[in-house]
Amino acid sequence: MECQNLTPFDALAYSALDAHDEEHHVLALKAAYRLVPGDGGEATHRCELLPDDGAGRLLLRDAFEGEANASSVRAESDLAPFKPRCDVLVRATAWAPGEEPAERWTARLRVTGRGAPPPGGDAGGGEPPRRALVDKTLEVCGPRWFERAAEGWQLTRPEPAASVPVRWERAFGGRSLVRAAPGRAPLLDEVCFTNPVGCGWMEARTLDALRDAGAPAPDRVAAPQIERPDSRVTRLAVASHPPHAVEAPQMAEIAADYPFAPAGLGCVGRAWTPRLQRAGTYGEAWVAGRHPFLPDDFSFAYWNAAPDDQQIPHPDVGLRVELWNLARPGLACDGRVAFELPPHRAFAMAWIAGLPVPVPAALDTLSVDAESMVVTCVWRALVARALGVRRMEARFEVDPRAPLLKMAVGRG
């Protein structure tokens, strides 16, 4: 199949299988917007389309904040086959109000869509009430630790801080790694299944393994600085994992007993619970009956990278995003950044049997980088290969009222 990109943005066509083993042509298109100060009203900023300067390039592999597979995912590959919901992802630093160092403060993300008009269509001359799609608050604090004492690990008071990066490293989670002699397997290597890169979690065998390795026990360990209001970390979580490897279902059962949950706004790792469990079961039954296809219990929700409470239905026009204390104070208005996504539409023009067929693309990834004040959008369109598509064209429409297919009218 031939693919033509008739837009100034990055687009790519590739193939993928659905849950019924049917092949589909997938067209992904990405555009980037710069957030610039607005002209007043509810929105503090507006979106300006960026030229192809790198921010809007499709990612072919995952990008990390630090070491690959051992740090927060900065941005995930854009080459998913299908996302059943739209990911709303935020990369940000939480700033104390006024950039004045504080022990604690809150940060908030809210996403709203246009509400349904009232019966009769009369909104009283104003906009119908907006409906909340995401409303998420994080509690943020300065650096703090769990310090070892005779009566156990004691949580210290936070130190004042002006800013805290919103990364999974600052949230509940962690890894217990005790190395042996060079060239030998570690004495212990266990991770928190819900967030392997975080802090505030320890496997129960850690201190014994350190003693066996002849290594000193730590006097203090970092405590989470980013929390969910309903899951405040009050103590060091010491978890007992089985001494043998466990499969994904058992990971979920063990994680259900963790006393706290991680909090963040970015991509959840592919191998983290609960995302890993959505990839399905790859056991003997799969090898015998389904290999190389997807397992019967595979869920395409696996391809959604955002935390569950940041996944929304594929949006239409009128999406508004608001951030509180998640952008440098000099770029925000009293700590708030608010913008409305332009009513732009990406779509594929599929040529089937010599006729053009417009295929709307779903906006399935909305990423806000509040550190660079750049917003990126990824749209995705799917067409079954069985339809005999000879050519697909990537197209982009900025007029929300324009038809996707414009027919030429001949004159008599």
Describe the structure.
With 412 residues, the protein is mainly β. Among the domains are: 167-263, no CATH class; 270-304, no CATH class. Helices cover 5% and strands 38% of the residues. It has three helices and 28 strands. Strands 2, 3, 4, 7, 21, 26 and 27 form a seven-stranded mixed beta sheet that branches. A five-stranded antiparallel beta sheet has the order 19-10-9-22-23, with no helix packed on it. Strands 1-28-24-25 form a four-stranded mixed beta sheet, with no helix packed on it. This is DUF2169 domain-containing protein.
Concise summary:
By secondary structure, this protein is mostly beta strands. Helix content is 5%, strand content 38%.
Label this structure with key terms.
5% helix; DUF2169; five-stranded antiparallel sheet; 412 residues; 28 strands; DUF2169 domain-containing protein; mainly beta; seven-stranded mixed sheet
Q: Spans of 5+ residues with little confidence (pLDDT < 50)? A: 408-412
Q: How does the overall form come out from the CA principal axes?
A: globular
Straight-line distance between termini: 37 Å
How many helices does DSSP assign? 3
The level of helicity is: under 10%
Cα-atom Rg, whole angstroms?
A: 24 Å
Proportion of residues in β-strands:
35-45%
The class by helix and strand makeup works out as mainly beta
Q: Output mean pLDDT.
A: 94
How many beta-strand segments? Answer: 28
Sheet of most strands: 7 strands, mixed
